[in-house]
Design brief:
three-stranded antiparallel sheet; 10 strands; about 15% helix
């Protein structure tokens, strides 16, 4: 009986490992300039992103780029929950970008907020709850396979100065709790080689008293206050793999 249990556990561990993307950076196709190209069908270790359909209407989180003395970049990005609860409507405006030769410029939601010292590196990697990674690049034809925070990959890079864009993203949440929630994270602007130019935190700017927030409610029903700081995301698939391995090791030790 014990040998059957161990064999079953080993089989389950093999299945978890097999679900990880099989493509390596060296296998990613490149264009004539050597830039990596999207690979259709590549998804996260935890599968494709789910469409968010439970957002409360009228909730907006906005990130205002700082008025820095070391950068001319100014702008904002605002995400408002769709009226029917499905997805988030984004409005993005930016100007003052550096030399166009550093582009195309990209922007992403990053996993952690910007600390008080303004260090954009501290925002860590892109919001990526499905553990997809940045390579190969996002395929905008299949946005569900992209990192949830890869706004430029799903909706297009910054292609002019000034630049503005508006679009609906189906895979982000204004509801605190799920990993698709972006309200306690940050926006980061990059050059084409991933150098971080500027960054800003999302903060709650509109929403009613029933909005899922840790803020307080003012007399007009508007929620004010700060968002909880997210814990660094370590990757659910990796945790699952380690846990499964620990189970198998424990079973093996028990049998011995």
């Amino acid at each position: 009986m014990y040998s059957t249990v161990l064999a079953t556990a080993l089989t389950g561990l093999a299945i978890v490992n097999a679900q990880s993307p099989s493509i390596s950076p060296a296998q990613v196709p490149k264009n004539a300039a050597g830039a990596p190209l999207p690979v259709p069908g590549v998804t996260g270790k935890l599968g494709n992103a789910d469409i968010v359909d439970d957002n409360l209407a009228g909730v907006t989180y906005t990130a205002f780029l700082p008025n820095s003395t070391t950068s001319n970049i100014r702008g904002f990005i605002a995400g408002t929950s769709n009226a029917n609860g499905t997805g988030v409507n984004f409005a993005f405006q930016i100007s003052g970008l550096p030399n166009p030769s550093l582009g195309p410029f990209m922007y992403h939601i990053h996993d952690q907020p910007v600390p008080a010292n303004g260090n954009c590196t501290a925002t860590l990697a892109h919001q990526d709850p499905y553990v997809r990674g940045e390579v190969p690049p996002c395929d905008p034809v299949h946005p569900e396979t992209c990192q949830t925070g890869d706004l430029a990959g799903k909706h297009g890079n910054i292609t002019s100065d000034p630049f503005s864009a508006a679009y609906l993203d189906l895979y982000l949440s204004t509801h605190q709790g799920p990993a698709s929630f972006f309200g306690n994270r940050s926006i980061v602007i990059h050059t084409s080689n991933a150098t971080r130019l500027t960054c800003a935190n999302f903060t709650l700017t509109t929403g009613n008293s029933s909005s899922p927030s840790n803020g307080t409610t003012s007399g007009n029903g508007t929620v004010t206050g700060s968002n909880p700081v997210p814990s660094p995301f370590t990757g659910g698939a990796a945790v699952t793999f380690v846990s499964a391995g620990a189970i198998v090791a424990g079973l093996a030790a028990f049998l011995l």
